[in-house]
Design brief:
6 strands, alpha+beta, six-stranded mixed β-sheet, 120 residues, Rossmann fold
Length: 120
């Protein structure tokens, strides 16, 4: 029986922290788990973007604040953030390609929460 949990809430309530703690518990219990979450990037006390972090420890930029003067037809925007699609695809797509019937329920994703946070 598969179970799915969708974690939502405003920025700063602990969604990412919960995912990190659940991941630690599952890994320490020997339960195979794979997936990713997003983590806020701050500079000088100000949110400047998000990184995508795989459960195997790889990290890369997901989005960064950018000025209007740096717009390009090749950039993808969510609110004030430019999305680094190449970085996201390099980290996440290989993991998603390895999803099988046996492990598809072990994939954790926090990307929707990041998109919602970007919009605010």
């Amino acid at each position: 029986m598969s179970k799915h949990v969708f974690l939502t809430g405003p920025p700063g309530v602990g969604k990412t922290t919960l995912i990190q703690k659940v991941t630690q518990v599952l890994k320490s219990s020997g339960i195979p788990i794979d997936g990713f979450y997003t983590e806020e990037v701050r500079e000088g006390g100000r949110r400047t973007g998000f990184d995508v972090v795989t459960l195997s420890g790889k990290r890369g930029p997901l989005s960064r604040v950018s000025s209007e003067s740096s717009t390009s037809r090749r950039e993808y925007w969510v609110g004030q953030y430019v999305v680094d699609l190449v970085s996201f695809e390099q980290l996440v797509l290989p993991m998603l390609r390895n999803v099988s019937k046996e492990n598809r329920n072990s994939i954790l994703q926090d990307i929707l929460a990041a998109v919602e946070s970007c919009r605010r």
